[in-house]
Amino acid sequence: MKYYNSWTPIAKLDEITKGKLLLWEEDGYSLLLTQIADQIICFENVCPHLGWPLDMSAVEEGLLICPHHGFEFDLLSGACPLASELSLRYFPVRERDQYIEVQLNKVRVNGPD
Ligand code: FES
Question: Which residues contact 107 (CB under 8 A, 6 or more apart)?
Answer without folding.
Answer: 44, 89, 90, 91
